[in-house]
Structures are given as structure tokens and as C-alpha cells.
Write a structure and sequence with these properties.
Layout (H helix, E strand, L loop, with lengths): L5 E6 L6 H12 L2 E4 L1 H13 L7 H7 L16 H10 L3 H16 L7 E6 L2 H5 L5 E6 L2 H14 L6 H17 L12 E4 L5 H13 L11
Parallel strand pairs: 1-3, 1-4, 2-3, 4-5
The protein binds cytidine-5'-monophosphate (C5P).
Length: 223
């Protein structure tokens, strides 16, 4: 992928900080940003609304429109029950297949005529965009990720019980890591960035150091 838009793939488990990092990198490089988790969340939400079983592939595919018409800005997509439904629909091969081309098209022709794309998810570096110019696998200890998610929920006025949140996140990680199709794992050529001891600013600086060390990205940094 040397001609055409530059692509950065960011993968990692729940609440590792992918969203914040991906947005900041996209801003610094003036790239487009795609949070692919929102695609699975939007499908999970549509299935919950249609009162269908998120594990029933035929019902899920019937309840879901084309990726282009999914409403990715709906705040309800952030809900934990939606995250849970998303992780269930994400195990279905038909769902992943339906989303694949949309994600590839985004990277091949980033909206707004941008020169590149930052695409975040679970399988971007391994399956969706294996030829990405740069792959970052962002991770952090489960307890730290749960504490960050708890803080974020409280800041939004939502109450959550830590032990329950930890259990739900562990289950979601396991479902993502153990599923047969596109399991969560670092690509062989990914730079692994562990943010257990890094705050958002330090994680951004560490990621930008990785990006600047890549010849493809020379002169692209506006920050
Ligand atoms: O990243 P986020 O927590 O919003 O993702 C919600 C769920 O969508 C994940 O737990 C995962 O099961 C699924 N997902 C996926 N592949 C992606 C992005 C998200 O399977 N590329």
C-alpha cells in the first residue's frame, strides 16, 4: 500500500483507549477516522430494537440495513447492553462479511478527500486492512481498562458496579479473542503499545513516535 491513501490500523481490546488515540492521530495527520466498533454496535442496537436474538445470524441479517445507512452518531450506541449485543453479532461470519467492503472502501477513498485514514477495531490489521502502512495494537491490563471505563461512565452520570463491569469486560474480551472468525489478536507486524502505565497524552506521544519512525509518514505530522 504505497500508492493511494496512507492507512493506520489500530486494534486492541475494549477500553484500551483506541478511540481517543485514533481521533488524536487522525487530527494530527489530517486523516479520516473510522471507529469500526460503531458498525457492530449499530447492528447490535438494531437487533435489540427489533427484539431479535443477536446470536441468530438469519434474524440479525434480516434486521440490519446496508452499512451505509447505519446511524453511527446515535449516543445509544455507547450503552453497555449495546456493546454486549455488538460482541455477539460480531461472532457471525455473515455480519463481518457484510461490513468488510465498507471498511475497505473507507480506507481506499477516505471521506473529505483526506490523504489517509485511521481505522480502529479488533481485526483491522489482521483481516480488514492487512496491507496497512502501520499497525498499532493498543492494550492495557484489564483492571486498568475497567477503571477507565468506570470513570468515563461516571463522568456521563451513569452508575456502574466495578465488579460487574470487570466481569462483563472479561467476558467481552474472551468472546472477541476466542471467536472463530477474525479473533482479536495483534498482527505479526503490529507495534504493540501497552498503556497500563500511560495516560492519554503519553499514549499519543508514544504512538506518534512509532508513526514518525515510519518512512511512509515522514512530513505528514502537523502537530
Ligand atoms: O470497540 P467497541 O467496544 O465499540 O466494539 C464493540 C464490539 O464490536 C467489540 O466487543 C467486538 O466484539 C466488535 N468489533 C469487532 N471487530 C471490530 C470492531 C468491533 O468484532 N473491528
Amino acid at each position: 500500500m504505497t500508492d493511494g491513501p496512507l492507512v493506520i490500523a489500530i486494534d486492541g481490546p475494549a477500553a484500551a483507549g483506541k478511540g481517543t488515540l485514533a481521533r488524536r492521530i487522525a487530527e494530527a495527520l489530517d486523516f479520516a477516522h473510522l471507529d469500526t466498533g460503531l458498525l457492530y454496535r449499530a447492528i447490535g442496537f438494531a437487533v435489540l430494537q427489533a427484539k431479535q436474538d443477536p446470536s441468530d445470524e438469519a434474524a440479525v441479517l434480516a434486521a440490519v440495513e446496508e452499512p451505509e445507512s447505519l446511524r453511527l452518531g446515535d449516543p445509544a450506541l455507547r450503552r453497555d447492553d449495546v456493546a454486549d449485543a455488538a460482541a455477539k453479532v460480531a461472532t457471525l461470519p455473515g455480519v463481518r462479511k457484510r461490513l468488510l467492503q465498507f471498511q475497505r472502501d473507507f480506507a481506499a477513498a477516505p471521506p473529505g478527500g483526506k490523504k489517509g485514514a485511521v481505522v480502529e477495531g479488533r481485526d483491522i490489521g489482521t483481516v480488514v486492512l492487512p496491507a496497512a502502512n502501520l499497525k498499532i495494537f493498543l492494550t492495557a491490563a484489564l483492571e486498568i481498562r475497567a477503571d477507565r471505563r468506570l470513570k468515563e461512565l461516571r463522568e456521563r452520570g451513569l452508575q456502574s458496579i466495578r465488579s460487574q463491569l470487570l466481569r462483563e469486560m472479561r467476558e467481552r474480551d474472551e468472546r472477541d479473542e476466542k471467536r472463530a472468525v477474525s479473533p482479536l489478536r495483534p498482527a505479526e507486524d503490529a507495534a504493540v503499545l501497552d498503556t497500563t502505565e500511560l495516560d492519554a497524552d503519553a499514549a499519543f506521544e508514544a504512538a506518534m513516535t512509532i508513526i514518525r519512525s515510519q518512512p511512509d509518514f515522514a512530513d505528514k505530522d502537523r502537530s
